[in-house]
## 1
Amino acid sequence: MDKNNFSRDQYARSLKRLEDIFRDISHSADEVSKWRCPYKNVQDRCTAKFGCRNQDRNVPIDELYVCIGSDDIDYRPAWQV
Ligand code: SF4
């Protein structure tokens, strides 16, 4: 195997590895989005740019609303779009 083929093989393996990593990330995101609203950040604040009945708006003006939705029930019917 010459140097160029080796590099091509390494490149192909790297691409395959990246593809596997992103596939795993995508699968995990799909699974989590089935029970956790994708607009809820890690601090349980709402990042949505639309109304939702689960938004606690009793926060200082420069803060994101608090999400009071339960992760045990479907969040989508609360959206007001
Ligand atoms: S308030 Fe509604 S839109 Fe915002 S994170 Fe919670 S469930 Fe999602």
## 2
Amino acid sequence: MRIGETRQFRRDPLEYIDNLRCRSTTGVFRLPWGGYCVRDTDLAQTLLRSPEYNSGRSGFFGDLLPTRRAQVEVGHAVRNVLRAGEPQYRAVLTRAVAELPAVSRWPAAGNELVYRCLTDLLLHPGITPARTRRLMRQAVHGGAGGVVFHAPHAWQRARAEVLRARLLAAVTEQVRHRREHGVGEPRDVLDAVLDACATDEVTDRTAAELHLMMFRAIVVPLSSSLAWSVLLACLHHTSDSPWPWPAGQVVREALRYRPMPWLLGRTIPHPVEFGGVAFRPGDLLSASPYLMHQEKGRWTDPDAFRPERWDEPGEHGSYVPFGAGPFACAGAAVAQTLLAESLTALTRDARLTVTGGDTRPVMAEGNVPRPFTLHRTELDTEGR
Ligand code: HEM
């Protein structure tokens, strides 16, 4: 990328990719950091849904699991543990929101809120040594973070590597212990991973890596999607009255307007012409949920944040915040429930306002909101 382009990208990555799309004359356009992106929504749907580009193992798990079947089983097992843990999430959430300061800095405070509600579901306190849970906590917060959430500076990332190695060693030890003693009904995400890969092909170390991968895949998009929901609703509803939308609609619209996963990549398996460009095996082609959610003609006022659109029939274009097709997110439904619950808890008997908010994202592990301050004012019994 040239210096001017890097500057534009930093200023607003979404505007930047939209400009690339507008300038392109073919069905796909080249990305300056390598690979291509699909311009047209129908072609993007083909890329995400067609068996031609979505057979074999999904890239989401890398090489951690030997078969597609094992990938699906891990996804379903983890989703089931989270679903069963919804009442527990809700109970911790009530306490966490009650203890949230009246003024908090986001997205950091949202990251902490989501992590706190999930911590016992990630590694159950009754069966995990306190030291391992402390390391997991440091992986989220540890000084400047970096193991779970993206750290902006190289020195933070170097420190995170040390912490990551310590966490993996501790969880590997825990895997060994649990495998020796047998895993019954899964009590946390680690149990779910072990239950789904009860095979010698998955070593103790690989199981620990899978746990860390799922830990990130759960906590990171939930946290940033919650932060977007809070920010966008506050920026678009500035009066003193309660928000006019149900929490679920705000979440859906925030996931449309600022989908956290910004490019979904597929590796081209064989020579093919796609969108007017000839691809070779191994080329990377991506669909952009953001561009698909912005397509004029399929959405009314796509560049407006309008949660009420989800009440209007015939309003919807392609909606893919959780991907689509064979490799779509295994946790989509549970993620939407947890987000709506979190937003409901934050707004219950309270008025939310923000200062310093900006709808332009920064690119970290995906589309993440820039820092903003949330003011949460408790309302009296008459709602004032
Ligand atoms: C707001 C929260 C979330 C968002 C926005 C999100 C988004 C996504 C997206 C876009 C994909 C597809 C990637 C692709 O097509 O290449 C994906 C895959 C996946 N997600 Fe999520 N996700 C969220 C939460 C969760 C949760 C809570 C779980 C827990 C079960 C989860 C588990 C998975 C798994 C297992 C896959 C891989 C599916 C496969 O390849 O079989 N996600 N997620």
